[in-house]
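Worked example 3. Consider a protein that binds iron/sulfur cluster.
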Amino acid sequence: MGSRLQLAQCTPDQASLPQNEASGISPFLPEQVPVKGVYLHVPFCRHRCHYCDFYTIAGREEAFEAYVERLLDEILASAAVLQGPLETVFIGGGTPTILPPGLLKRALDGVRTALPVGTNCEWTVEANPETVTEACAEALAAGGVNRVSLGAQSFHPERLKTLERQHDPSTVGRSLDRLRQAGIEQLSLDLIFAIPGQTIEQWDADLTAALELGIDHISAYSLVYEQGTPLTRRRDRGEVTPIEEDVEAAMYEHAISRLAEAGMVHYEVSNWAREGAACRHNLLYWANEDWWAIGPGAAGHVQGVRWKNLPRLAAYLEGTGLPRITVPEQLDEDGRIGESFMMGLRLLEGMDRERVESLLAGGNRAQVRHAAIEGRVASGHLAWEADRLRLTPTGLMVADSIIMDLL
Ligand code: SF4
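Given these inputs, the predicted complex is written out as structure tokens:
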């Protein structure tokens, strides 16, 4: 994006990348960093799903213990610079719950004892259904976790096979039972639609199955063919046929109406929650707040600087303290304005007029953005309601293109 001013552009293989503290995030930030959230990455999975482009590694069980030791070291280094109180902690992956319960608990204890975790902190861990044993659920609860986001994706065995997921649909309910028995009540399911071969009836059955499990949050994303994934190569070889765009749009519309009927609030383009159960950590992202990143591949954002920890397990395990990073960037004014629109409009509550007007008053693209908003209001994709600018139901269907106009 042309409006972005790069502070530095480092790749892991650049010989010029310093091997010392200067290759970390510290030079770009003040000595003490106030943040509201922390994201911690666990880059291990049992198997790599065919659509996945996250930083994760299949197998490598022998590295789990060393990884947790290194995490504890990074947590202590982070504690020296972070100011809380933390309102959210999010442990994602990969599959954090692939760690044996004892190691998982050590990592959680490390976070809780070293970092400035606030009293009412939302503490989420991502999990895959096949990894949630009783011991795992107990370790999560004992470690302070109060919310789990479970990767169900589909309840149809054939669709799970297309995605190369490892679990049987029946494990989702069993995992939720175990988490509830351990005392974790805030439970979310991830679902994917527009999977090759999927029909609207199957998608409806997935939504119904999810709702019957009594969870309070659903994230539903359409399948994306990310560059370089096995699924995309299979598509390119003609082995899988993507769902047609109008069917995909119908599936999204169906999710909106089906989940509304069930009393879920559609609060973000891809997220629904029961009253009061919206994911507070993701709300930090959408409000462009500051959060810290721990673990290789984790991305952080503080005071306009975005960075990503180097996604290299070996380099991470060899290092100490704060990890090396790639691509720190600082947005210029236009970049910050565009990003504020991108984040703000993803929320169904939209953006208040005062905020929109103050954003439109700055940057070099004010006229272009003004015209884009007027055009989208005229076409019915955006609307002013109760002094807030929001995506309309038809705008939701093309949210990405509206947001691109405003970047
Ligand atoms: S479980 Fe999640 S992180 Fe792991 S490979 Fe599958 S999609 Fe990627």
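Take a moment to read the result before moving on. The pocket of iron/sulfur cluster is lined by residues 45, 48-49, 52, 54, 56, 93-95, 128, 151 (CB under 6 Å). Confidence is low (pLDDT under 50) at residues 1-22.
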